[in-house]
Amino acid sequence: MPLFKPWQKGYFELVIESIKRECPDHVIVQWDKLFLLIYDNNNKMKKFLLYLILLFSLMLIGCSSVMNSTTQEIEITSTPPNARLIIDGRQFGTTPQVVNIERGKNHTVKLELPGCDTYEIQLTTKLSAWVWFNVLNGFIPGFLIDYINGAMYTLRPSYLDIPLTILPEPKKPVKN
């Protein structure tokens, strides 16, 4: 079964097909606007509910991994524009730019432009709010997955608008 996210089109239809396939003679499942209607014909609901709970708990494992992903887009602009953008020693082009970097560690962002002071800032990791949704699936499995792949973090700041300081031009010696 392909991995679908609940907000994707066709997700609930896929869940209903799966339920009907597992319990063809026991359960009638219908999708009615906002509710999943389940009718039990043969009192086999316990087996079905366990299957349903398992299905939804597998969906929630690693909530931050599903909702955040392991990378984050950071928009970086500068005044004046076209400053050379260097993140963790790797060049990423010039500003303005949106970069996609991994969430699991701190990053050093450096901007260089001839005639301006070099600017350096640290992007730091903060715990994402999505990590607390792992409580819904027993906390430990989802938390471990989010910790290992770094999805449990959010980078701050998520937007950088950096005013570069223009250096004064050196005075030229006056000839007599």
How would you portray this structure in words?
This protein starts with 10 loop residues before the first helix and ends in a 13-residue tail after the last strand. The longest helix is centred in the N-terminal third of the chain and has 16 residues, at 45-60. It contains four helices and ten strands. With 176 residues, it is of the alpha+beta class. It has two domains: 11-60, no CATH class; 67-162, Immunoglobulin-like. It has helices at 11-22, 45-60, 63-67, 140-149, and strands at 27-32, 35-40, 71-79, 84-87, 90-94, 97-102, 107-112, 119-127, 153-156, 159-163. The strands form three sheets. Strands 5-4-7-8-9 form a five-stranded antiparallel β-sheet, with no helix packed on it. Helices cover 24% and strands 34% of the residues. Mean pLDDT is 76; it is low at 1-7 and 31-37. Strand 7 and strand 8 (119-127) form a beta hairpin.
